[in-house]
Design a protein that fits this description.
Structural class: alpha+beta
Distance between the termini: 68 Å
CATH architecture of the largest domain: 2-Layer Sandwich
Helix content: 25-40%
Strand content: 25-35%
Shape: rod-shaped
CATH class of the largest domain: Alpha Beta
Number of domains: 2
Order of helices and strands: HHEEHEEHHE
Length: 139
């Protein structure tokens, strides 16, 4: 009898179970207790838990009659945004340039010249010796 009730309730809440699977919610328990479907699991974020609850309410506004749900979330933070690659800037040295002048131009701080030197160690051996025509990476 419990197996029939489990199958009936799983069918009713199949869209919820499908969403949980899509979101990567780790299912801990799925069984019938006191004629109610019991779902326990762990979601990655609070937002995922809210999505599951929204789906439950779409299926059945009076879900408390036949459903008990306990889904915990592991993180309160939103999903991380994909990182974009940093913009690569190239500066072509002209007569009169120094690393300090270039740093002032790009960073508004002449004292940041070592950033440029360190990014160009393959081309530069001395931060005081740069030459017109060199192309320097500006990190």
């Amino acid at each position: 009898m419990a197996d029939i009730k489990l199958d009936q309730l799983k069918l009713k809440y199949q869209s919820v179970l499908n969403l949980m699977n899509t979101l990567g919610v780790q299912l801990k328990n799925l069984h019938v207790q006191d004629d109610k479907l019991v779902i326990r699991g762990d979601a990655k974020t609070k937002d995922d838990v809210n999505k599951v609850w929204n789906q439950i309410k779409l299926v059945e506004k009076n879900y408390k009659l036949d459903l008990m749900v306990d889904i915990k979330f592991l993180s309160d933070a939103p999903a991380p945004k994909p990182q974009t690659a940093p913009t690569l800037r190239i500066h072509k040295v002209v007569a009169g340039d120094t690393l300090s002048k270039i740093a002032k131009k790009y960073y508004d701080n002449a004292n940041e010249y070592m950033k440029i030197f360190n990014a160009n160690k393959d081309k530069l051996k001395d931060p005081d010796k740069i030459f017109p025509g060199q192309e320097l990476i500006i990190p």
